[in-house]
């Protein structure tokens, strides 16, 4: 699952992966009261040319640096399908929930503001292994963001897959991400989308209950299913149990992990998870390869 | 509530045993009865009838006597609790293939929540008293039913715990 940075770079002078590139905020979209999406464009024209070669694979993340505040890992939530070169500049799309110092500062950025970007880093969703299979994506809360690129890619090559199912659970109707897009996806005949919330008042006519309660309601062939899960660890633990109860094998379950990060290139050890580093061996892991450490308190 | 095949209001409930020929194949298919011995199904079907509810209708309300349970075939229903300050709060929604109601099996046989229909509902209703009598007459059947209902209660308890944990929240 190693990822190779595809950049046009001088062979004698490899760019320092710790050195951020400058990006300008091209667009800000407030998704919910605490979550927003930034579209970032490379700043210099030289960089722009180089950046045409910058691609990412669904599931990868960037380190976003708010100068004077700090740097945080944020998954790329945009479309990985390559744009036509020259039509529009390449962009990175990130959806972030404001939880602390850096992400709150990020939430104050406006169009035209500048930030630093390092990446893309990390492993990706197993796109190659999904061909010809049923795909069950289970997202919890902000976990929908890292799954969105995978969904874009599946939909752009729809004929390559059997069933595609997206199950999404979040706290309340007001916390639903990508609302308009979800509605469009739900209207498609070749995609099953189910949304559920934890709490709702009378006006909500959708599902209420945690995301695991949606699994028994869908029909899929567990023997030819690849499951992609992203959300808080506790949600992923219970989702895995439910999928296994329905016959999905551990080797067909993929999860995206989060840990504190500093360097994102396997040097500092901040993101250690058992014998692996989440920044370079993850964030996407095949479940059977990390199950030993998953859910252990000490790790 | 409308009994299927009896669209006009005011019709009496079909007498137990009436829909036997039509309902048994449906019960066999329903996940709740999966693997149940045919002789038990034949006993149970005598307590069952087909029902329909429109959107907005209440199937039951908190505090009322709980004398039915429902196997949902189509549509969606919300379990709600009403608070004067916050209005109706939905605790859970149930749909096709799921079971609504277990209070019929355990004293004091009262509903704990309101059940309000969100999408037109087709279900099989079971007369709780009729079933309880059969369970008393045949404890093997009773044990089977209690096991199945307990399984649902456990699932709901787990789901409720996860809900309480606020699993998508900031500190989860
Ligand atoms: C590989 C990877 C991909 C990620 N992708 C995304 C993404 O796409 N969108 C996104 O919004 N976040 C994502 N995150 C999480 C994000 O990096 C953190 O939310 C961020 O680092 C918090 O930094 P902060 O300075 O704002 O908060 P801090 O000041 O470090 O923390 C403030 C408070 O928030 C809590 N907190 C911190 N992180 C989280 C979290 N992830 N969930 C809940 N509570 C938290 C802390 O416990 C603390 O109480 C990702 C993390 C990793 C490792
Ligand atoms: S963040 Fe430094 S080793 Fe992973």
State the gist of this model:
The complex is a heterodimer of chains A (299) and B (172). Chain A contains seven helices and 16 strands.
Could you explain how this protein is built, in words?
- The complex is a heterodimer of chains A (299) and B (172).
- A seven-stranded mixed beta sheet of chain A has the order 11-9-8-7-12-13-16, with helices on both faces.
- Chain A is of the alpha/beta class and 299 residues long.
- Chain A has helices spanning 45-51, 101-106, 144-156, 179-187, 233-245, 278-281, 287-290, and strands at residues 21-30, 35-42, 61-66, 70-75, 92-97, 114-121, 134-140, 164-170, 192-197, 200-201, 207-208, 225-230, 253-256, 272-273, 276-277, 284-286.
- With 172 residues, chain B is α+β, with helices and mostly antiparallel strands.
- Chain B is built from four helices and seven strands, in the order βααββββββαα.
- In chain B, strands 1, 2, 3, 4, 5, 6 and 7 form a seven-stranded antiparallel beta sheet that branches.
- In chain B, α1 crosses α2 and α3 packs across α4.
- The A-B interface holds A 97, 99, 140-142, 169-171, 175, 196, 198-202, 204-210, 212-213, 216-217, 231-235, 238 and B 31, 76, 78, 80, 86-93, 95-98, 118-119, 158-159, 162-163, 165-170, 172.
- β10 (200-201) of chain A pairs antiparallel with β5 of chain B.
- Bound molecules: flavin-adenine dinucleotide and FE2/S2 (inorganic) cluster.
- Residues 61, 70, 72-75, 95-97, 99-104, 142, 145-146, 258-259, 261, 283 of chain A line the site of flavin-adenine dinucleotide.
